[in-house]
Amino acid sequence: MAARLGDGAGAPAAVPHAQQPAVSLDQVRAAQRILRGVARTTALEGNRFLTRLIGAPVHFKCENLQRTGSFKVRGAYVRIAGLGPAERAAGVVAASAGNHAQGVALAASLLGVRSTVFMPTGAPLPKIAATREYGAEVRLHGHVVDETLRAAKEYAQRTGAVFIHPFDHPDVIAGQGTVGLEILAQCPQARTVVVGVGGGGLAAGIALAVKSLRPEVRVVGVQAAGSASYPPSLAAGHPVSIEAPVTMADGIRVGRPGELPFALIRDLVDEVRTVSEDALSSAVLLCMERAKLVVEPAGASPVAALLVEPEAFEGPVVAVLSGGNVDPLLLQRILRHGMAAAGRYLSLRLRLTDRPGALATLLGVLTVADANVLDISHVRTDPRLGITEAEVELHLETQGPEHCAEVTKALAEAGYTVMP
């Protein structure tokens, strides 16, 4: 069950707090004009599987197909475009493990501004290479993003370069808010918009745009359970930090909400849910298998929320796929994890008599049961085994939980005992 925090449907467009937000709808509209010819108006694609699941139309807003592979170029370009001549001459600096790095690099190049991007030493090589190809000077520093962030800020103080924050700036939020304007233009009948939340820039911008024009539309944020800083922050009434956020969804692995995004999300987002790593893996797998879209775990978080509790969302629903930049090695692990979570992997150990043809007989049983053997380990020499025994560990690909049960039953009927 997804964790939830919110007061239900119908959040008002007007901000109930005394202080008006630092970002306005006019700024989002101005950002849309600035981005004309720069950011793509990404496609809105229907998804039949999720439509059947929730009983109402579900659409994907495909920011994974945006330039640089994520929405980040929107906010970065608006922020850098707003710099004065002296600031541009000083260059810009950013810290990021991936998407923000590439967004800043491309935006700066398009505007003729020198950019330096600090990335953690363990950042995936494809993301480092892409950031360089977009025109940034990449400096590897630190093992975690916090260390990288400190290095970037020190560089800004030392050189005078302008630090481009990934989410906590009005221009950045306005740029990300253009996604919300596009959603309303492409799907005017939308009743719910679901978006992943890290620091909160994208969710804040979308909520501002959507609620200003269509206050009845429900906006739902989604965080990874191991990196969910917004539920405790909303409960406390101010941003609070969580220690050591852990999730495969590095795009939303942020330990503390931004001050500006927090205020907007507090006032305009109806609900913030959390999803497990299993749900994220299943969502990435669904996007690839059913929608033929490569989506990173952070980008698939809205899909994960729909899978976990489909009855909680009123349609038509727009799920924002915020990015598609995922390291191929990580993607391989995620897909395997997603298949396991969906009951399509079966791992088991069993013992058999160590005689010629015993392994072939076992494989014959699995063939009849239509189980695909991915890996097999055959152990004969182990102090735990009798002199005539062998142990076999199997990793099988199945068609789902029911097929797993059928395979296990077939093994039992053939006289094999599955080990705990």
UniProtKB/TrEMBL annotation:
Q: Name one Pfam family in it.
A: PALP
The enzyme's E.C. designation: 4.3.1.19
- Tell me what organism the protein belongs to: Streptomyces palmae
Which Gene Ontology terms cover its molecular function? L-serine ammonia-lyase activity; threonine deaminase activity
List keywords of the entry alphabetically.
Lyase, Pyridoxal phosphate
Query: What cofactor requirement does the entry state?
Result: pyridoxal 5'-phosphate
Q: Which PROSITE patterns match?
A: ACT
Q: How would you classify this enzyme at the top EC level?
A: lyase
Q: What is this protein called?
A: threonine ammonia-lyase
Source species, domain of life: Bacteria
